[in-house]
Write a structure and sequence with these properties.
Blueprint lengths: L2 H8 L6 H20 L2 H15 L12 H17 L2 H4 L23 H7 L3 H12 L4 H8 L3 H18 L8
Helix pairs in contact: 2-3, 2-4, 3-4, 4-8, 7-9, 8-9
């Protein structure tokens, strides 16, 4: 067991890493799912990102900024994974290799809108997810994504227009 893990386990004053993860895991997992596009990769992405954040946890002075720090780590970890050579050979298909039976049905979050959001490019998906799913402001979204507020606005606008087109509402596609 590493020294960091012992310190986290020994001090639980509400600002420890373990307390933070216990309290914020559902929200962080939702963000990881929006970034990754599927629940299984999201779990792996969240775990890998938390492992990267743990050694730097003591350096976070403002715990209110911890969410932005972890979200940025999740986003960067995902981008890093996408750059891996083995990912280039992966090809999505319309048919699944195995049929999902009724006893293994996917939760209700797999609705039509979710499928459309997943079809967006990564930056547009991230901007739309942070703005409308997580309820962050333009400035907060810019901090999480590490870009300017103007970039957030343009990615959000393009993402919403694409969603309108994908939903079959050309009159709303602006």
């Amino acid at each position: 067991m590493s020294e960091h893990l012992r310190v986290v386990a020994a001090t639980d004053d509400g600002s420890s890493f373990a307390s933070y993860v216990a309290a914020r895991r559902p929200a962080l997992l939702r963000w990881a799912r929006m970034v990754a596009g599927d629940p299984h990769t999201a779990e792996d992405l969240l775990q890998a990102s938390l492992v990267r954040v743990l050694p730097h946890w003591e350096a976070i002075r403002d715990l209110a900024a911890a969410d932005a720090y972890v979200r940025r780590t999740i986003t960067r970890q995902h981008v890093s994974w996408q750059r891996q050579p083995w990912r280039r050979d992966e090809r999505p298909t319309d048919t699944l290799p195995e049929r999902i039976g009724p006893d293994t049905a996917v939760p209700e979050v797999e609705d039509e809108l979710w499928g459309l959001v997943l079809d967006l490019p990564a930056q547009q998906r991230a901007a739309v997810a942070l703005r409308f799913y997580e309820g962050l402001s333009v400035a907060e979204t810019a901090v999480v994504l590490g870009c300017s507020p103007g970039t957030v606005k343009s990615n959000t606008s393009r993402g919403l227009a694409a969603l309108r087109r994908l939903a079959g509402a050309p009159a709303l596609a602006g």
